[in-house]
Design goal:
The complex is a heterodimer. By secondary structure, chain A is mainly beta. Chain A has no helices and 11 strands. Chain A starts with a strand and ends with a strand. In chain B, 0% of the residues lie in helices and 50% in strands. Chain B has no helices and 12 strands. Chain B is mainly beta. The relative contact order of chain B is 0.34. The radius of gyration of chain B is 14 Å and the shape is globular. The chains are: A mainly beta, B mainly beta. At the A-B interface, β4, β5, β9 and β10 of A face β5, β6, β10 and β11 of B.
Chain lengths: 112, 114
């Protein structure tokens, strides 16, 4: 069964450092997403990506964040100058049309 | 904007009990509705979905019916098992674009005791 994969599973970084979270979406999907879940809180939308560009972003997704699809398979989220409040579980998802989205297992980001 | 409200948790049940987790939504038009489940230490798994009014989504003994008149999508299961212990999230996707974001509810922690 096809699945979304994410690496690393856990990333620890110092405040102010840059991190790149990686995702491999399901191969025939067209839409890609990043969500985050701060511990004990609801899952929040960050950004969606379609046809090699951002199609929608939330108010959380400010200049600190960027996304890229560097090749035909990977989808990355870069967080520049991380802050303590960026500590969360980050989920990548992909979908076809009219689908809810298949989520990856997540990357737990810990900013110290 | 779109929003999803779930019943407050946590919910604790005995094995074989009947489960209902309430979910109501606010959205224009006809959104698509979803239930996701998150087992301890894992990511989100799509449990079931419904894309139009009066549709019933079902999977693994769980069911939910898309009720436009009450803007609800309550999750039910007739007989829960210990293995159903997880966090359940109700979510919607607006009808404006098919690839648009999911809006999640707060999540409901379910614990099933033997």
């Amino acid at each position: 069964e096809p699945e979304v994969t994410q690496t690393p599973s856990h990333q620890v970084t110092q405040m102010g450092q840059e991190v790149i979270l990686r995702c491999v979406p399901i191969s025939n999907h067209l839409y890609f997403y990043w969500y985050r879940q701060i511990l004990g809180q609801k899952v929040e939308f960050l950004v969606s990506f379609y046809n090699n560009e951002i199609s929608e972003k939330s108010e959380i997704f400010d200049d600190q964040f960027s996304v890229e699809r560097p090749d035909g398979s990977n989808f990355t989220l870069k967080i520049r100058s991380t802050k303590l409040e960026d500590s969360a579980m980050y989920f990548c998802a992909s979908s076809e049309m009219l689908a809810g989205g298949f989520f990856g297992p997540g990357t737990r980001l810990t900013v110290l | 904007g779109n929003s999803v409200t779930q019943m407050e948790g946590p919910v604790t049940l005995s094995e074989e009990a009947f489960l209902t987790i309430n979910c109501t939504y606010t959205a224009t038009g006809y959104p698509s509705l979803f239930w996701y489940v998150q087992y301890p230490g894992e990511g989100l798994q799509l449990l079931l979905k419904a894309t139009k009014a009066d549709d019933k989504g079902s999977n693994k003994g769980f069911e939910a019916t898309y009720r436009k008149e009450t803007t609800s999508f309550h999750l039910e299961k007739g007989s829960v098992q210990v293995s159903d212990s997880a966090v359940y999230f109700c979510a919607l996707r607006g009808e404006e674009t098919s690839g648009s974001r999911l809006t999640f509810g707060e999540g409901t922690q379910l614990t099933v005791n033997p």
